């Protein structure tokens, strides 16, 4: 199994997109890229920690490639929007790829460059590509949040 970590707005939606992918064996949401140890949601949304909301994915590369995971990442958010996705604003919602090894870094940089050159977007892609750092798991209430919310609404 390998890990991939992506930030593309609210972590609930990013996680939900990857939970449907064949070859993804585990997902979680949390925080990465900041300067504050063991942040909670309120710390991150107060914009004092520097963290991004991220989804961390464990996947089987024999079933789904890192390139395929990147294609999903590009499709589920606007990589030209700086520190904002939809109504969510702030650096915690930034577009960021945290790579776990040099191969992921090379693939991510090439993918970003190819997408920019494709002309799909009129504006520049602002997605950061950074080495993975400490990952702080969000509380249980945030894990698989959209699935939980949807199942609650079905039962009402």
What can you see in these coordinates?
The chain is of the alpha+beta class. It has one domain: Peptide Methionine Sulfoxide Reductase, Chain A (2-Layer Sandwich). 33% of the residues lie in helices and 25% in strands. The protein has 5 helices and 8 strands, in the order E-H-E-H-E-H-E-E-E-H-E-E-H. A 6-stranded mixed beta sheet has the order 7-6-1-3-2-8, covered by helices on one side. It has a two-stranded antiparallel ribbon with strand order 4-5. Helix 1 crosses helix 3 and helix 3 crosses helix 4. The protein starts with a strand and ends with a helix. The model has no long low-confidence stretch (mean pLDDT 93).
Outline the fold blueprint.
Layout: E1 2-8, H1 11-19, E2 24-32, H2 41-45, E3 52-59, H3 66-76, E4 84-85, E5 88-89, E6 95-99, H4 102-117, E7 128-131, E8 136-137, H5 145-154
Parallel strand pairs: 6-7
Antiparallel strand pairs: 1-3, 1-6, 2-3, 2-8, 4-5
Helix pairs in contact: 1-3, 3-4
- pLDDT averaged residue by residue: 93
Largest sheet at a glance? 6 strands, mixed
- Principal-axis shape equals globular
Q: Please tally the β strands and state the result.
A: 8
Number of helices: 5
Entry summary:
With 156 residues, the protein is α+β, with helices and mostly antiparallel strands. It has helices at residues 11-19, 41-45, 66-76, 102-117, 145-154; strands at 2-8, 24-32, 52-59, 84-85, 88-89, 95-99, 128-131, 136-137. It contains five helices and eight strands.
Question: Top keywords for this entry?
Answer:
Peptide Methionine Sulfoxide Reductase, Chain A, 8 strands, globular, two-stranded antiparallel sheet, single chain, 156 residues, 5 helices, alpha+beta
